[in-house]
């Protein structure tokens, strides 16, 4: 069996089921920045397979730029291969690549594969993509969140092995909450919900504005917002006199038992900005999702956007303006159809087939066999 370590910036709580199975099934160990803060995530630092190392910040540009002590990590763990977070802001991304070019430890990057904040089409490739393309050149293989990352990098590295570890969370555990949580008392019909950090990329302000237009035809509708963040003052301003009435800011919730009650009560999960793992969260609770389709000007969705199958797991709005979002809501609810009930069987099948942790592990299993096979051939 090959000895593999995973090098990450932080260990968010939602990754623990995956890391635990990596350790138990593949015997991988996880090394991370034990001193790296993150106000957006609930971080885990203590488990037998977790190894904290001090990273050194190299700029004041947030919590993504760190000097990683690659040499001491390699000397301590002596891995056959390292699966590294492919972030340009970590010096490990570049140092590991240089070491590999000089004959050092086998290297696989685990990443989305591109910068979601810039165009990646051939005819309008953004300059922000080039650091990613350059950084991944020395890697022996790539582990990517979805097929979009594979399709992008194939243009530059047609022969590089690439494995998909479909990005997900512990939907099995969320299913237990779904089946046991008591819904919060219904506040309106329809009741819409969104969950996540209140940041500009999530466009919760646009969501609120679209909801207020939609409410003109559906005066009993309610929007619940579970989350907090720097954009909260703008969200409150957009809600105006409906704040605390038809628009309810629940605040941040790190208690899944409480979050579950709001999701159980809702008819539709709504996203007006970037789609990420929130869609997995919603589908685990049988909630169809409404989001805005990706266009030339955004939203800059992650790989998880492909989990939204129009008419099966939710709905796509083609017009991302508040007016367009409101029109799509009108269309969805105009006939009085109970979409949550009608789509539930298909959503559950989709979750079972695509979003279970085991599907994500498939990508890591393939990577583990790739490293083991190369080790056998080398010996």
Notable traits:
Rossmann fold; 15 strands; 2 domains; six-stranded parallel β-sheet; single chain; alpha/beta; 379 residues
State the gist of this model.
The chain contains 13 helices and 15 strands.
Description:
By secondary structure, this protein is of the alpha/beta class. It has two domains: 4-168 and 356-378, Glycogen Phosphorylase B (Rossmann fold), CATH 3.40.50; 171-355, Rossmann fold. The chain has 13 helices and 15 strands. It has helices at residues 16-26, 70-77, 91-101, 130-135, 147-154, 171-180, 204-214, 232-239, 256-265, 278-284, 322-333, 339-355, 357-378, and strands at residues 4-8, 29-33, 50-53, 56-57, 66-67, 81-85, 106-111, 141-144, 162-164, 191-195, 222-226, 247-249, 268-270, 289-292, 314-317. The strands form three sheets. The chain has a seven-stranded parallel β-sheet with strand order 3-2-1-6-7-8-9, sandwiched between helices. Strands 12-11-10-13-14-15 form a six-stranded parallel β-sheet, sandwiched between helices. A two-stranded antiparallel ribbon has the order 4-5. The longest helix is centred in the last third of the chain and has 22 residues, at 357-378. The protein is elongated, with a radius of gyration of 22 Å. The chain starts with a strand and ends with a helix. The model has no long low-confidence stretch (mean pLDDT 94).
